[in-house]
Amino acid sequence: MAPNPRVSKAFRAMKDIGISEDKTKPVLKKLLKLYDKNWELIEEENYRVLADAIFDEEDSKVVEEKKCQNSQVEDFGEDVQGPDEPERPLKRLRLRGQETQVDGMALKKPKLEEDAFPETSSQQQMQLSGPKRSETGPSSSRRVDKGKEPVSPRVVTRVKKSSLEKSSAAVRIKEPGAESGVKNSIARASGSLALLKPKDEPITDDAFTNELPIAAIHPDSSRKDHSIANDSVRKADGQVAQVSYPSNGSNKGDGMETSSCKRITGSELATVMEELHPNLEIASSPLGEVKISLCCDSTFGRPDFRMPSRDAVIKYMEEKCLQSYKIIDPTFSVMKLLSDMCECFLELGTDSPDEQQEGSISRVPLLDVMESSDPMDSPGTVANEGNLNLPTSVNEPVNTISDGELAPQVPRMVESSSVSNHQTIHETSKSSKEIPNGHSEYEARKEFDNLEPANPQNLMVVSQSQQATDELSCSHDVVDIAKGEERVQISWVNEINKEHPPFFHYIPRSLIFQNAFVNFSLSMIGNDNCCQSCFGNCLTSSVPCACARETGDKYAYTPEGLVKEDFLDEWTSLARESQGNHQFYCKECPLERSKNDDCLEPCKGHLERKLIKECWSKCGCNKHCGNRVVQRGVTCKLQVFFTSEGKGWGLRTLENLPKGTFVCEYAGEILTISEMYHRKVQSTKNGEHTDPVLLDGFWNKEGPLKEEKALCLDATNFGNVARFINHRCFDANLVDIAVEIETPDHHNYHLALFTTRKIDAMEELTWDYGIDFDDLDHHVKPFLCQCGSKFCRNMKRSSSRCI
Ligand SMILES: C[S@@+](CC[C@H](N)C(=O)[O-])C[C@H]1O[C@@H](n2cnc3c(N)ncnc32)[C@H](O)[C@@H]1O
Fold first, then answer.
1. What is the predicted pLDDT for the residue at 150?
2. Which helix H or strand E contains 59, and what residues bound it?
3. CA of 501 to the centre of ligand 1 (A)
4. In this structure, how many other beta carbons lie within 10 angstroms of the beta carbon of residue 217?
5. Which of 721, 726, 779 to mutate to test the pocket of ligand 1 (most atoms within 8 A of CB)?
6. Please, which contacts does 524-533 make with residues 24 or more away whose CB atoms are closer than 8 Å?
7. Among the atoms of ligand 1, which is closest to the Cα of residue 643?
8. Distance from residue 643's CA to the centre of ligand 1 (Å)
9. Other CB atoms within 10 A of residue 429 CB
10. Which helix (H) or strand (E) holds 107?
11. Which residue's alpha carbon is nearest to atom 13 within ligand 1?
12. 20 to 30 Å CA-CA from 55: which of 121, 643, 675, 712?
């Protein structure tokens, strides 16, 4: 029979690298058997597998030469028979210090650290002929490859390129037989690895990875170590994982077979895996039961990969999250996210199915359209019962709301163990209505109260089926739209229609978005900008402290916490006259600059502001100092309500407010003007609009502003109760005052809203947006003003509604 041309070709290829036909023949025969005569696998990468196997054979002192000597080139037909079906080396174990054989063909048994490997015969021998298997001894220096890739083409290429010598972390491959007695054919010292190879040509450690025998890893299913199956090995000491050597053809799936397993401990496996694919542990559950780690498999084409530090990865990832996913919370932490993920993983993985079911219900705030006329069900009443002194004679929201037609939906939390999926429990005072699990409703509420002390009125159990998921996500707690973020609850009510307030995230303080530059560092605050030597309450001091300098060495607040009348009147009239006198014009206006037009238009003017400087953490006074008002947050009783004049939602006070009262600050995302325009374009495309508020009161003071310092506030997605305050031309009952607290750098400040006059309970709160209704290019999109003021600047359109 004419010699098989493929066989001849294989001989030639081996000859080219100095391997004789004699040596090639038996190995090739075995390989053909091993691969079910799949020549492609053998020919791949210039016969690398064949060369590998020959070197392995050479290295091994247990080659059964007889089997090979009788073989002939002509035997390479379709009917090659072998005594045993060997394993595919695709899934070989790569263990250092171990002799591994497949059908008499020794797989590599590199050993790196002799000391770490007591050379017992059982440890050295890992006979894997057919179903044979043996225990490996414990080792801290084993390597396992997941064995899905036979060998990388790069290795062969590199073997031929002697010029690719690397000094560090290089793999040194030695001539077969050159150290015939050396079983530990891989030596590793100070990051360099050595294993047998025909020529003394160093290759990279990537090549080393590919040179090693490949292992199949099978998780011990009884121990549920799924991470190992997924290539993510946990270093759970003492755990047993299995390394399997599938018998020929028996495994059609991933090649793993539990029946032919080599047991090694979890920690050994982890070490082996880690050395082959070093893992970078990123996060874990608190007790370390669940861990997230990263590894880069350099066999998949990144020989240049070097393990970065965990800090570098986290930092980079956080930057990416902030930029790519528009996460705006500057306190966002990838670490926290990943740790939470570990916890969730553990929780879901360890809960019984029943618990999981209940958990998934109970952790979602459920809503219900309130049907009960029980006054305790009424959000208005709940608000009243809490701390809102609602004059029912004015509006009678209790009656209105208890009408099922008009009542807004109440999201209420439910304690997981208290109820089943479809129970509906309407909150009723502290009655002891039994609920099916034996808990009284009161007990259930008490349990929940313990979980949510900030919002004790928050309990209601409702039918999950009544609310679609998207509805849930758009819901606000009628009792407290601020979700406990403020010192007082802020209810919402709709007496006009069934609309809900728009979805947004409630934040009590502004948050910085991306590159908006706001430096809160204490080092930024020099001694001149605070009152370090003060004590107690600055307002009682005979000499005004440094913090009063901005207001002409007078404190802006009265001991009652109101803005002093003279200041207030001055600032109110400044704001009201803002259309003319107290305007400044930037040389290069950030607003115009960010429009990206071809030519810069001249600045249209900004209101010149005065500042209130409050004492803060670096000051010597205490937290109750009278020069700290805005930083304490909302204290008035407020309510979000649906206006009847066509302005949408609005904000009103539920109590009388004296003149000069701080109501709230305008909180939102602190954006650069560039981002503001970017959003404007996006929202216009989506048919939405944003109403940003400029922090432009001091733009002219700093000369041409750097882009990251020209800022504004956007409360569209993240904001506080101020986002509901409607505009009123000229005679609004609130005025916005710039208040500096943390930063002495005027480009950022708190925009605080104070009452311009005494306001009665139930009056709507309004402020003048400073909008120019004739400027269609204004950063606030003009609307048909329904403010009702006789000074309305949008008279042409709204004159009929003026009062
Ligand atoms: C900051 S939001 C105020 C809350 C808003 N009404 C809502 O429903 O969410 C500003 C938007 O409210 C509306 N708005 C505010 N003042 C208004 C007024 N005087 N007349 C008509 N619409 C007004 C405009 O649509 C404006 O874009």
1. 33
2. helix 39-59
3. 12
4. 28
5. 726
6. 524/743, 524/744, 524/745, 525/616, 525/618, 525/742, 525/743, 525/744, 526/744, 529/613, 529/744, 530/615, 530/616, 530/618, 530/619, 531/615, 531/619, 531/620, 531/621, 532/618, 532/619, 532/620, 533/620
7. 6
8. 10
9. 11
10. strand 105-107
11. 647
12. 121
* pLDDT band (50, 70, 90) for residue 269: low
Query: pLDDT digit string (tens) for 532-577?
Result: 999 999 999 999 999 999 999 999 999 999 999 999 999 998 888 7
Average pLDDT over the chain reads: 65
- For the stretch 708-734, pLDDT in tens is 999 999 999 999 999 999 999 999 999
Cα(111)–Cα(94) distance, rounded to whole angstroms? 10
Sign of CA dihedral 390, 394, 399, 405: negative
Look at residues 164, 236, 245 and name the one whose alpha carbon lies nearest to residue 201. 164
Please tell me the predicted confidence (pLDDT) of residue 506. 96
Instruction: Compute the distance from residue 726 Cα to the ligand 1 centre, in Å.
Output: 5
Q: Whose CA is nearest to atom 10 of ligand 1?
A: 726
Sign of CA dihedral 717, 722, 724, 725: negative
The residue to mutate among 500, 640, 647, having the most atoms of ligand 1 within 8 angstroms of its beta carbon, is 647
Instruction: Report which ligand 1 atom has the smallest distance to the Cα of 649.
Output: 8
Pocket (CB within 6 angstroms of ligand 1): 502, 647-650, 691, 723-724, 726-727, 783, 785-787
Q: How many helices (H) and strands (E) would you count in the chain? A: 21, 29
Question: Tell me, what's the pLDDT at 474?
Answer: 57
User: For 672, which DSSP code?
Assistant: E
The closest residue, in CA terms, to atom 23 on ligand 1 is: 647
pLDDT top residue among 636 and 38: 636
User: What is the ipTM score, two decimals?
Assistant: 1.00
pLDDT above 50 for 51: yes
**CA distance to 17, 61, 156, 392, 686, per residue, from 185 (Å):** 20, 12, 19, 90, 66
For ligand 1, atom 11, name the residue with the nearest CA.
Answer: 726
Confidence of residue 65 (pLDDT cuts 50, 70, 90): low
In our burial notation (b when 16+ CB lie closer than 10 A, e otherwise), range 378-413 reads bbbbbbbebebebeeeebebbebbbeeebbbbbbbb
Res. 313 pLDDT band, cuts 50 70 90: confident
CA distance 402 to 373: 5
Query: Quick one: 211 exposed, middle or buried, by C-beta within 10 A (0-12, 13-18, 19+)?
Result: buried
Q: What's the rounded Cα separation, in Å, for the pair 391 and 655?
A: 9
Distance 633 CA to ligand 1 centre (A): 23
pLDDT band, residue 764 (cuts 50/70/90): very high
